[in-house]
Amino acid sequence: MRRLDGSVPFRGGGFHPRERWIAGAATLCVLIAFWQFGTWAGFLPTLFLPSPVAIAVTLWRLTVTGVLWQHLSASLARLLIGWFAGTFFGMATGIAAGLWSVTRSPVMAVVSALFPIPKIALVPLFIIWFGIGEGSKIATIGLGVFFPTVIATMGGVDNVPRGLIRMGQSFGLPTTTIIRSIILPGAAPAILNGFRVTASIAIVLLVAAEMIGAEQGIGAFVLSAGNLYDTDALLAGIVVLSVLGLVVAGLIGALERVLLRWR
After folding, report:
1. Best CA proximity match to 150, nearest among 91, 88, 82
2. Of 101, 119, 238, 240, which has the highest C-beta tally within 10 A?
3. Are residues 141 and 78 in contact, defined by beta-carbon separation less than 8 angstroms?
4. Do the beta carbons of residue 130 and residue 81 sit within 8 Å?
5. Given its phi and psi angles, is residue 42 left (phi above 0), alpha (psi -120 to 50 degrees) or beta?
6. Is 81 helix (H, G, I), strand (E, B) or coil?
C-alpha cells in the first residue's frame, strides 16, 4: 500500500525481539503482589506458603546474622569452579569434534552413551572416588555442564560457513588463528545459548549435590529447613536460588551484548 507521497513503507524488518527488563520486572512484581494478597485474604495458608513479607523478613535476618553469606559463599565457590571446568573442557572437546573427523566419532559415541545418565545418580560414585568433600560436588557440576557444552559448541562449529574457513586456509592462516578469528566468533551464538542451559543445569546439580552430602551451602540449608518444617527459611533459600539464576542470566545476557555486537 502506497502512502500519500507515493512512497512504499518498508516491510522487511524481520523478527528482531528485544528484551525489555521493565516488562520482566513488572511481571514478577505483579505475581508477588497477587501472592501477598492471597496470604492476606486467607486464600493461601501461611503454614504451607508463607507470605513474601515473611520471607523477606527471614532473608533480612539471615543476612544480618551472616548465615546466608556463609551458605551462599560455599555454593558460589562450588558453582564457579564446576561450571568453568566443565565449560572449558566442553568447549575444547566440542571444537575438536566439530573440526576433525578423527575426534568426531569417538566424542559422539561417549556423549551419546553418557549424556542421558542423570548426573545426580553419579554422586555416590563420585563420593567414593573423591570423598565427601568438595571434589565430589565439583565433579558432579563439571560433568553435568560438560556434555551440553560439547553439543552446543559442536553445533555452533558445524554452522560456521565452511567457505570462511577455506578462505582463511587459502591465505595460509595458522589453525589457532582460524579457530580464534573465524570459528569461535561464528559459533559464539550457539555457545552462549549453551551457557544459558548449562548455568541452569549447574545450579540444579549444585543444590542436589549439597543436599546429599554437605554441611554448608544453599542446598544443605534448604534441606535442613525442610526437615525442621521451617517454611519461611526454606522459601528464603529458594528465593536466593531464584535470584542467583536471574543474576547468572543477566551476566550471560551482558556477555552476549558484548560478544555479539556484530549481529
Report:
1. 91
2. 119
3. yes
4. no
5. left
6. helix
What is the C-alpha to C-alpha distance for residues 252 and 246, in angstroms, rounded to an integer? 10
Rounded to an integer, what distance in angstroms lies between the CA atom of residue 59 and that of residue 74? 17
Distance between CA atoms of 132 and 123, rounded to whole angstroms?
10
The pTM of this model reads 0.81
20-53 as b/e, with b when 16 or more CB fall inside 10 Å? eeeeeeeeeeeeeeebeeebeeeebeeeeebbee
Q: Cα dihedral angle (149, 150, 153, 159), rounded to 10 degrees?
A: -140
C-alpha cell at 217: 551451602
CA distance 183 to 81: 26
Closest to 137 (Cα-Cα) out of 185, 186, 187, 203: 203
What residue spans define the domains of the chain?
52-259
pLDDT tens digits, 27-52: 888 888 888 888 887 777 777 778 88
DSSP state of 179: I
Query: How many residues can be counted in the chain?
Result: 263
Tell the residue number behind the cell numbers 542451559, with chain if given: 197
- What's the CATH superfamily of 52-259? MetI-like (1.10.3720.10)
